[in-house]
Description:
Elements: H1 8-22
Protein name: LuxR-family transcriptional regulator
Organism: Streptomyces laurentii
Region (Disordered): 28-66
Amino acid sequence: MSKFSRSTRTVQYHLSKVFGKLGVTSRGRLDRVLPAGPGTPTAPPAPADPPRRTSARTAGRRRTGA
């Protein structure tokens, strides 16, 4: 049986993609946008994080998540 491993950078990359689609910037904000699970009290949704500003210098660059 082979061991399946993921690098930290791979996980960071995929989480950043999901966070962007949900409009959040950290794991701490996920509870405000994801539906509550069974038996979890529900809270009103919080506003999404504001979009990040980009400068003319960095507008064409891809973020690496590092």
